[in-house]
Design brief:
Layout (H helix, E strand, L loop, with lengths): L1 H31 L2 H32 L6 E8 L2 E11 L5 E5 L3 E7 L2 E6 L2 E10 L6 H12 L7 E3 L11 E7 L2 E9 L4 E9 L5 H8 L3 E2 L5
Organism: Cytobacillus oceanisediminis
Keywords: Signal
Protein name: Lipoprotein
């Protein structure tokens, strides 16, 4: 009887060992049949999605980097009647022409007529600068002739003058006329990305020309809104 009991215990022990081996073999078979690769595939998919998101972000950053975003204000040093001043100029967009510029307090930018804007001194609107963006194929000889005729209304003695020592006015044509306390000047700016005519009218006792020129230097052409 004791021998029979021992024999049964041995058989039970062997059966337990065989069952354990079968479980391990099934796990190995499942692994061989692709259970783990599914998990790896999920990880690979997550990595691919993350890479695509990073690429999209880089493209968006690149597109934003190609465009120039102007800040809303800019400190500016200028001279009025020989007195040097400093103030904060604010970004303004022309509703009439495709450009933006920084305008100092005490001045206002407004449309005069199609393709012509006026930046004037708010305390005296007879002190102003007319702004005209010109086409790329502008006839400069005709423009210079017309400009000289316009300044002739101030004085028949219209003189060519030296352009300001600033990169913005490099190669610009400058004309001036003055009589009876009235002053007129014109700046024909010829740049690769900007063709511009500035006509300034000031007075001996209200000489804002340098202030107008400082603001004019901030003019930047913009793409038309679609």
């Amino acid at each position: 009887m004791k021998i029979m009991v021992k024999f049964m215990l041995i058989l039970g022990f062997i059966a337990a060992i065989l069952a354990g081996c079968g479980t391990n073999q099934n796990a190995k078979d499942e692994s061989a049949n692709g259970a783990e690769p599914i998990q790896n595939e999920e990880k690979a998919t997550d990595g691919q999605d993350q890479t695509e998101e990073e690429d999209a972000t880089e493209e968006e950053t690149s597109e934003e980097g190609d465009s120039i975003i102007r800040i809303l204000e800019q400190n500016m040093s200028y001279t009025v009647n020989g007195e040097t001043k400093e103030d904060t100029a604010f970004l303004k967009h022309s509703d009439n022409q495709n450009y933006s510029m920084y305008v100092l307090p005490g001045y206002e930018l407004t449309a005069e007529e199609p393709n012509k804007d006026v930046l004037f001194f708010t305390e005296n609107d007879q002190v102003f600068m007319r702004i005209e963006l010109l086409p790329e194929d502008a006839d400069w000889s005709m423009i210079e002739e017309n400009t000289k005729a316009q300044l002739g209304a101030v004085s028949e003695d219209v003189q060519n003058a030296e352009a300001p020592a600033d990169e913005f006015f490099k190669d610009a044509t400058v004309m001036k006329a003055e009589q009876n306390g009235q002053k007129g000047s014109a700046y024909l700016v010829k740049k690769d990305d900007l063709s511009l005519k500035l006509t300034l009218y000031t007075k001996e006792d209200a000489d804002h020309e340098e202030a107008f020129l400082q603001m004019a230097k901030t003019i930047m052409k913009e793409e038309p809104l679609k």
